[in-house]
Amino acid sequence: xxxxxxxxxxxxxxxxxxxxxxxxxxxxxxxxxxxxxxxxxxxxxxxxxxxxxxxxxxxxxxxxxxxxxxxxxxxxxxxxxxxxxxxxxx
Length: 90
Prior knowledge:
Elements: E1 3-6, H1 8-21, E2 25-31, E3 38-44, E4 52-56, E5 59-63, H2 65-70, E6 73-79, E7 83-89
Parallel strand pairs: 1-6, 2-5
Antiparallel strand pairs: 2-3, 4-5, 6-7
């Protein structure tokens, strides 16, 4: 993966959450299991081994290595009704 796109509204929301949680970064990873896998984003205090760090708009995003290796880009945007949406470009 070479690109991370985050819209301005998502950046502002993430900044607020990082301050609120006193976190180092947001981490994107695959959660769930079996047929119910889903992408999750959560504030974290430190990266995990293998995480890839991206910086945009003054925030750090840590992405699980498996996601980085299997995608061309990740897009994060804020939908007023649904919250943060993560889209993978394969």
